[in-house]
Each structure stands twice: as C-alpha cells, then as structure tokens.
C-alpha cells in the first residue's frame, strides 16, 4: 500500500501488486497477487526491439547502443530524442511521415512522440525484411507476429495464447500476468540471450535516451552502475532487471498511479539491496517528496514463495 500524506494526515491510498521471478519462471517473492493480469504497455518495448536486432537491420544500419536504446525508449520528446529516432529512419532511407505514432499535442512532429524510436525501428525492420510498411502496426503483420512469437518463446507459451490489443501509440501490447512480466525481465537481465543482452546493454549505457533527464527510468539506471535495468509502462506498470543474475521484478498499481509505482520500486530496491543506500536516498528525495509537506509512504513487504 502506498499512502500519500499531507502533513501527518493520510489523504490518498494506492494498492500495489509486485512479484520477483527468476529466469526459470519461478516466483521467488511476491506482495499481492503474482497472477494479477494487466497490460504490460511500454515495458514491452525492449522485447518489441528484438526483430530489429535479429533481422540484422540494427547491424546493417550500424545504429550502435544509441539506436537500440531509442528503439526501446519512452522518451520525453526532446530534440535529442527526436534526432535519434530520425537517424534510424534516415539510415533505413525512410521518412518521418511514414511513422504512424501520433503527433504530441504540444509538438509538431511524430518524432517527438515518446514511442517514435520504437516505431522507427519497426519501419527499419520492415524495410530490411521486405515487409509492407503501411500496415506495420496491424496485429497480423509479419513484424507483429514475429514480436508475439519471440515473447511467447521467452514465456514458454504458444503465441496464440497471448492476448494483444492496441496501445495508445497504435502498436499492439499484451495482457500478461505480473509473474510473466517479471519472467521477461529476468530473461532481459540474465545475459544468456545475445540479442536481449545487446538491448539491455544499450539501455544501461544510454539511459538518457530511454526516458530523459529527471525521469525515473533514466535516473535509476544512471545510479545503478550497470546493475539494474528499469522500464516503466503506463497505468502503473514498472519492471526491473537485476543484470547478470537472471532476476526480474514487475509492479502494478491497481489505480494506475505513476507516483505509487515509483515509490514501490524504490521500496523493493531497498528491500532487495539492488541499489546502494546513497543512490536510493537520492532517488527517494526526488520521488517520495511530492510537494512541500506532502510525502509518499510505502507499507508492506515481499513474502518468500513457499
């Protein structure tokens, strides 16, 4: 439970579920329901980048870590982020007008949308494979079928068992159990899959591209010294990987509050001892103090799975 306190008086409460899994899919610890089902939203992005790597498009275009990081990003739409997304398109001889993510209300180009890097990588993969460009977001498109196949393979499921629906950017997202999300992120941090290792290394070495200055995922990874990967999603979803240990964490806030998922992530990082006390103190100052006299308080603990 996350409580927002105004002074010493509780004002709001957020109920949160969290789970820790290893790469065999074993639930090691949980708070709430490990089987809680929800959409993974943008926490799926590192796995949506898999065909970009496996097709050879990323290598052919020589995108490096920055190109892979922006392909997995939920960025803030700065000039730097838009430029990196544009570079993917330019190297694949594509135009920004071919992006099918929305133009932000405050912006003048789809390159400024937080998912533009993912969409640029989608298009570059389609160009490399000779797949249709106009329909790249359709669930029956070869690209989306390949993403679903790769995710199902990591989960040990037939692809047809995965339920996909449209995300806000137009791309399919998946409804998964929290334990399944944690399993995906255990794989991401396990260093046993060469393509996933490329993607996780890119995100950790270029954290500024994954979100942006002052944003939770970027600031957490900057302070983790390459040990913790962080990727959030909308509606209260937050996932973490412990690099080299094959452990993944998935968090879901029932009411979708961003502030609560970040507070719980820091609470669990302290409990798991995945970040130094100094780094956690710095992040808590940034996240847990909402306003002058307004704080977030987390209660509860992970239980060992029997």
Distance between the termini: 22 Å
Share of residues in strands: 15-25%
SSE run:
EEEEEHHHHHHHEEHHHHEEEHHEEE
Largest sheet: 6 strands, antiparallel
User: Architecture in CATH?
Assistant: 3-Layer(aba) Sandwich
- Fold-level CATH name: Beta-lactamase
Please tell me about this protein's structure.
The structure is a single chain. The chain is of the alpha+beta class and 306 residues long. It has one domain (2-304): Beta-lactamase. The protein is 41% helix and 21% strand. The chain has 13 helices and 13 strands. A six-stranded antiparallel sheet has the order 8-9-10-3-4-13. A four-stranded antiparallel sheet has the order 2-1-12-11. A hairpin with a 3-residue loop joins strand 8 and strand 9. Helix 4 crosses helix 9 (194-205) and helix 12 (258-272) runs antiparallel to helix 13 (277-287). The protein is globular, with a radius of gyration of 19 Å.
Could you list some keywords that capture this structure?
306 residues; alpha+beta; six-stranded antiparallel sheet
How is this fold's topology laid out?
Elements: E1 2-6, E2 9-14, E3 16-22, E4 27-31, E5 37-39, H1 45-48, H2 50-54, H3 57-61, H4 64-71, H5 79-91, H6 116-129, H7 142-155, E6 163-166, E7 172-177, H8 178-189, H9 194-205, H10 207-210, H11 216-223, E8 228-233, E9 237-242, E10 247-253, H12 258-272, H13 277-287, E11 289-291, E12 294-298, E13 303-304
Antiparallel strand pairs: 1-2, 1-12, 3-4, 3-10, 4-13, 5-7, 6-7, 8-9, 9-10, 11-12
